[in-house]
Amino acid sequence: MDGAASRIQVAVRIRPTNEAEQHSVCAITRRDGDDNVVMVVSDEVASSVNDGGAQSYQYDYVFDDSDNQQRVYEDGCLGIIDTALDGHFVTIFAYGQTGSGKTHTILGAPAFPDGTIAAETGLFLRAFEALFDYRQKMRTRMQVLIALSAVEVYVGTVYDLLGNRSEVTLRSAGDDTRLAGLKYFDVTSIGEVLQHFAVANAARTTASTKMNANSSRSHALFFIDLFMVPHPDGSSQPARPLTVSDVIGNDGVATDVAGLRHARVSLVDLAGSERVKRSGVEGQELKEANAINASLMTLGRVINDLHEGRGHIPFREAVLTKILKSALVDPNSRLLLIGQVSPSSLSVSESLQTLKFCDRLKGLRAP
Fold first, then answer.
1. Taking the mean position of all CA atoms in its chain, how far away is CA 77?
2. What confidence score (pLDDT) does residue 160 get?
3. CA atoms within 13 A of residue 2's CA, in its CB half-sphere
4. What whole-number distance in Å separates Cα of residue 315 and Cα of residue 324?
5. What are phi and psi of 17, to 5 degrees?
6. What pTM was estimated for this model as a whole?
7. 3-class DSSP state of 275
């Protein structure tokens, strides 16, 4: 994946209709015979949001309710995971309104206790499975250390989901934002990943709203760091086993280890935008919703300004965009956006906003 045309990939996933939408009009669909085009198929519905009739949007991939988790991973994500093995930093993030299926795509159902991937397991564990397979295949040539960390961005503050929810300090370093003091855990099996995931998931902030019974009230970012060190010449074993403390300093930067290649896979589960009137939140949940909407609005402005080629980009106006800056502007990074939408006319306004956001991000590929 070389060049501007392939650095950023954009997919859209249309989730199944839920019980509350059973009697609504189907407004968003994949075009028959074309896996790259989303259609807004109802003139009446599209006109109601001032978009003047049926429209089409083209992306790198379009998935609907006929596509299972494995298809989404293999078609949309496997290639970008492979680029991490070449030393790139890659980011996969899901974007869409609350209840559109983002957490299902990124996290999904847990694997079975023996580590076997289940049918509804999301991209998170499937990526780990691929990385563990790679480490096994390369064991006679190099040592591959795989480290997991996780944070949530909650009302403008970053918390360590694997470190007793302690507050994390952000430090700027060029286009990158480092998360100082973040805890990293060496993982060697799906079982260990599941144990850490259970801790992170329990620490994440959720609430029940009228639109989503288990609504995420924060943005969650899971980081999978790969540290690859070749074995000494003529040896099929490492000089000594690496540990997390050998390759990560207090500011999260890989330390000076001979021959080290460092790559990262970031999986971002964004909290969904929501219309407060529809979600019915109040009190602390209202504060959370306002913070979520403000950060997503800033992300939208950043994408729009990058698309328009403007000089000043407001990365620093939100914690989320500070963290995502390098993924958006570093020419050596790779990024996959999965836009999640509902097919229902009840959510057509929000779905169209997501489709347009995805379209703008796709436009950043132009040189």
1. 11
2. 96
3. 1
4. 9
5. -70, 135
6. 0.87
7. coil
